[in-house]
Each structure stands twice: as C-alpha cells, then as structure tokens.
Design goal:
The chain is an alpha/beta fold and 241 residues long. Helix content is 39%, strand content 12%. It has a domain of 106 residues. Helix 6 packs antiparallel against helix 7.
Amino acid sequence: MNQSELAKWDPTQLERYILLPVDYGFANNEDCFFISHYWRSRIHPDPQGEDLKSFHEDLDKSDWSYAWVDWTCMPQVPRNQAQDWYFRRMLRTIPLLVQDCAFEWRFPTFEPRAWILFEVASWLLNHKISQWLTNDMEQFALHTEEMVRGNGVIPTLEKYGYRCTNSSDLRLVTGWLEILVILHKILPDIQKRQETLDKIYHPSVGAYWNPDLGLRVNKNEGTIEHNQIVYQFTPVFKLTA
C-alpha cells in the first residue's frame, strides 16, 4: 500500500515475502487477494502506477492480509535456472490461486487478454458472486457465457482475437478454460466442482479419479470421462510433449 508503482520480484528482498502453501485453507478468500490486471507493456505491467492506484482504492476498503500479483510474486526476466523452474511451477498454480483467493480486478478498457478471460471465468463460474459483476468485467462475462452456452472455448478465443503477452501461454490457458467449461456442464454443484478443481489443478497431478462422481480426468491425454461419456480438452500436463 506504500508503493507508488508495482514492485518487481527481487531475489535480494525475499525476506519481505510471506510464503503460503497454495492449498485450501492457506490461500483463502477471507484474507488473501489475487490481483488481476492487464500488462501495459512487456517491460513493466503498470509503469505509471495507474492500476496500482486503483488497487489502493479498492483494498483500502477491504479486510485483507496477503496480496498476490504476478509481477511481484513471480521471478521476471532475466531468470536463472532455479528462478525459471520456480516461475513455471507458479504459472501452473494460478488456477488454484484464482479459485481459492478473493478476487481484485481493474480493467480500464476491454482488451482480449486470454489470462484475464480465464481469471474472470474461473471466478464467475465457481463462485456465487453475480451481484459483484462490474461494468469493466462485462465483456469477459459475456464471452464466458458464450463459451459455456454456445461456441465453446477455441472458437470464442479466435472470434474475439484473444492473446497472451507471452504467446506460448495460450495453449495452457486454453486447456484450463476447456476444463472449466466441461466441469461446469457435468458438475452443476459448485462445491463439488470446486473440490474437484482443487484436486486436478495441482501441478503434480496428471490424472484424477473420483468413483463417487463417476469422473476420470487425464491432464496428459486431455480427457475427462463422466458416466462413460468422454470430453476432450487441450492437454495441460506435459506441455513440452
């Protein structure tokens, strides 16, 4: 709250961080906030501090203890080998953070950013928060509805020209969106869906089986089987395969 611009991740300042397990009960929506925002440039996501000022206004009115923002909490380029490993590990935990933490966002104008669409879709589809829908989230909400009720994920992404700042991220985000949409269809109960996502989102989990739900998920093959019906999604486990 004392920053005039978002602080970049700094390996010489790690004592300033609070390290929490990315797991239910630790990362939670009572006192942990996931901050969603555009990157205004590849060099710095918010060079003039415009978004940070908005975050100050919002968070000043909220009870919170911890905030997660990618620029501050993930090693940025240039990265050494260990930092690159940690960055990739954290990249795969973002779905858990979005699902389990409270959500803070500011989107000045609509831009077709795939990461933002995933973060908004995850928040909207897995929480009972329709009364919190704001004008700057409206386009993303409409496109989420279109993915669920109409065209599906890839046609919607292509129709509106969704992209990632790092183009290699698009495949990962596409797979996560497809998982969201499929589970929203086959598991209408939000609590069961959240519990299932908490299991399969873990980076180390390549396959998941829940006999009570009649559900099998294979993240390597990109399949979800529910009551003998098989659904396909873009594989999100071994991305280098």
